[in-house]
Amino acid sequence: MFGRDSECAQLEQLLDEVVGGPIGLALEGTPGIGKTALWRGAVASAGRRGYRVVATAPGEPDASLAFASLGDLFDRLPDDLLAALPDPQRRALAAALFVGDAADAPPDPQALPRAALSVLRALAATAPLLVAIDDEQWLDRSSARVLAFALCRLREERICVLLARRPQSDGALWPELARGFGPEGLQSLVLEPLDLSAIHHLLTEQLNRTISRPLLRRIYEASGGNPFYALAIARELEATIAKGGSEYELPIPPTLADAVAQRLERLDSRAVDPLLAVAALSDPTIASIQSVLPEFRLSDLDSAERAAVIEIAGERVRFTHPLLASTHYSRAPAPRRRELHRLLAEVVTDGEERAHHLALGAEAPDRHIAMTLEQAAGDAARRGSPEVAAELLGHACRLTPADAVEVLHARTVTTAEQNWASGDIGKARQLLEALLSDLPGGPLRARALNRLARIRTDDFDVSANLFAEALAEAGDHHRVAAQIEMQFTEVWLNRGDQAAAVEHSRAAVELAERAGDLGLRAAALASQGTAAFFHGEGVQRSVMARAIDLEHHADETSSYYLPSTSLGLQLFWSDDVDAARPLLERSLRRAIERGEETDRGGLVFHLAHLEWEAGNRAVAERHTQDLIETARQQADDQADSYVLWLHAFLAARRGELGEARERANDAIAVAARIGDQFIVAFSSAILATVELWTGNPAAAHQRLPGLREGLCGRGGGFVGSLTLTVWWGDIEALIAIRHLDDADAVLQELIERGRRSGNPNAIAIAHRCTALLRAARGDLAAAIDAIDAALTEHALRPLPLEVGRTLLEKGTLERRAKRKSAAKRSLEQALATLEPLDAAMWVARARDELGRIGLRRPAVSAGLTPAQERVAELIGLGMSNREIASTLYMSLRTVETHLTKIYREFGVRTRSQLVGALAANRRDAAGTDEPAGPAGRSELRLGA
């Protein structure tokens, strides 16, 4: 290594810093600048340090093979590591790498990236891990996709990533890592040319002689400090001088390519064809060269080995630098290259590599070759490499004879589907849109339209029209038609026409039954249940039970669309979070195991929302960060709209109303662009509450009736926390502007919908709104009765924020009715409920109401939060932890956490000691009108 002390030090520092979590670097530079030498030095250093090292140095032929580099990296994985993987991941990895039970592995390509992440984490569990990739531009795209997914999801693992790459190359891994690896993306180290002194040492070492100063400067200036170029020029000069030429008259090659070409031209002519075979093979060996060139002798490569063009290690032969391989291959005449590929196709044993050689060797359309390529593409797809499948199918289309029009059409549709699966949505759309003008009617056209409709989720109106046309083309192909009807159902749900969604979901069930496919029937029944729920028919327990009974037949159904997921979502949207959570968590685990990232993103979104509603902040924050990261990685408009809505929702909960308004408007802009009417409606509801809470109820009222009409006017009307705002928000706005009769009309609609839905949270909120309306009409006693009824309903299905708001309204009404002691208890209970939620606006209002009462608060302990003080007070009254959790609408774990802090604050270790300390504390407190004992306990538990 000459002149690279600084770069070597940086690499050593990189290896030092991996203890802090994932870290990485890309060595960038022009060909010949020394990237590979530094890369190899770092790999060797990591080995000496005790790192686990997985490395790959792909060549140009590897770029077209499925999982060539992934196979290098995961070669010889321990059996126990593979066995520990979840079954979908283990089988997907076995299929990709041709190990274990690969032959039995189902086509589950989405599980493979998640398997790679699991493997990397397992390898790094016992020692730091170096993932080293040389010549990233030749990394096959299937490996790049899998590695990008895995590496961008590292968090605290001791994993160091080291790439070597050419600038401006089209490698598929670098852009993803530069954007998504670690906290700042993968950093780059650009290798600058060597200085004159380093070039001098290099040439002296490699040529084993001293170079004159004038000649050294000429070489340096011509090479620009590129060590590979300088060495190539010096060797050309040496060869010329050996033949009697003058070093001063020799024309130095003007480019690196010229220098490399001249170096290759000086080789023995017997080496030309063997070197061409080496350049074309993914794993060249002496035996493989002999099998394609029967006259080959090992001595044919002597000149190339002496000139350091190749290295021979045992049976394997490789070029010393990829530039030598690519230059030699490109200089060969095209007919000779095609001829060699045809010869190689006869001798290579790997079916996929044989297909590539057939494609590159073909001179005209050929029915047999096209069929072979199509079969190889199917194998690649089953291994989980849609990238390679799409490339092979592209060759198959090119080589399909002109008279095989129907075959060409079918292959084009399949090519588009594989492009879509690989993430190249633009290419898939381009192929399908170009094909449709020539594609006749029938099932194949239906299939193409169905796929294009799924691609065009950027515009639900366009998507709906394409689905309608696809359905018309499906004819009697019941399976295809059922799949289209299910997709159509989802489009109508997102467009807000629930009546149309119900019709299409019922049709999907009928078609699935005719198709006799039990898995398809399960998915169709789930779709029907969801559509009926959105139509306002409540949780479809009987339909969903039938679907769940068939769920084990629906292995091909992705996790988001499983019947159990659909039931979980219906329960959640009905505010039954405890019943919904295990179903959604199980579906999320399945999506993670199978690598279904789109499904995973949707499930994480719903679980984040669920845990915020349930008041589990730590879990909710974890899901929220996961959702943000997932949306960033997917670069998908719908995922972005979910994130923006959730940001608006959380800002509104915290009382950050300016932020809530801004994020809601952003969500509307994105969702309106793709036609997602739900996100538009729910974000608009947030804007209405912002108007209400910033003192502009008239503006809130202007928004809400239209939102109600949009939700219910086309057959919609499910009732839950997501939709209730359009009723209670308008009732509160109308009360504020003194339109009490209008408020009563909206209230009656809410009461009726709440009753029909059977949702206790909806009924509770209806009672709360009744209380507010009665208070506005001056009947405080009746208002308090209504608020007590609300708390009774809340206890059946408590959502902490809504419970806290109801307690706050109860305390406010009691204060206005001069019931100071009762008001104080209600408001303190509201504080204990709201403070853990970070609901700053409501907490501030509760404290303000407490301040208006005029009673002194009994001292418990200055070191406790209000929530902890309330827990301590209830312990003093003799309540169990479970009773306290029920009374304060907390989880049992939250009560136990508070209790630990209370023990520490009072310096006690047992419950009896704490009760004694609290009693002494109450005796010392002054200025309170609160009675101790059973009477206080009874009122505290009101509504629980």
Can you walk me through this structure?
The chain is mainly α and 944 residues long. It folds into seven domains: 5-190, 3-Layer(aba) Sandwich (Rossmann fold), CATH 3.40.50; 196-265, no CATH class; 440-556, Serine Threonine Protein Phosphatase 5, Tetratricopeptide repeat, CATH 1.25.40.10; 558-635; 649-694; 696-796, Serine Threonine Protein Phosphatase 5, Tetratricopeptide repeat; 866-940, Orthogonal Bundle (Arc Repressor Mutant, subunit A). The chain contains 48 helices and seven strands. Helix 29 packs antiparallel against helix 30, helix 31 runs parallel beside helix 33 (637-654) and helix 36 packs antiparallel against helix 37 (721-736). The N and C termini lie far apart (76 Å).
Write the layout of secondary structure elements.
Layout: H1 5-17, E1 23-28, H2 35-48, E2 52-56, H3 68-73, H4 79-84, H5 87-97, H6 111-123, E3 129-133, H7 141-151, E4 159-165, H8 173-180, E5 187-190, H9 196-207, H10 213-223, H11 227-242, H12 256-265, H13 272-280, H14 286-292, H15 302-306, E6 310-313, E7 316-319, H16 322-331, H17 334-347, H18 351-361, H19 367-382, H20 386-398, H21 405-422, H22 425-436, H23 443-455, H24 460-474, H25 478-495, H26 498-515, H27 518-537, H28 541-549, H29 563-573, H30 577-594, H31 597-614, H32 617-634, H33 637-654, H34 657-674, H35 677-693, H36 697-712, H37 721-736, H38 740-757, H39 760-776, H40 780-794, H41 800-816, H42 820-834, H43 840-853, H44 866-876, H45 881-888, H46 892-906, H47 911-924, H48 934-940
Parallel strand pairs: 1-4, 1-5, 2-3, 3-4
Antiparallel strand pairs: 6-7
Helix pairs in contact: 1-2, 5-6, 6-7, 6-30, 7-8, 9-11, 10-11, 11-12, 12-16, 13-16, 17-18, 18-19, 19-20, 20-21, 21-22, 21-23, 22-23, 23-24, 24-25, 25-26, 25-27, 26-27, 27-28, 27-29, 28-29, 29-30, 30-31, 31-32, 31-33, 32-33, 33-34, 33-35, 34-35, 35-36, 35-37, 36-37, 37-38, 37-39, 38-39, 39-40, ...
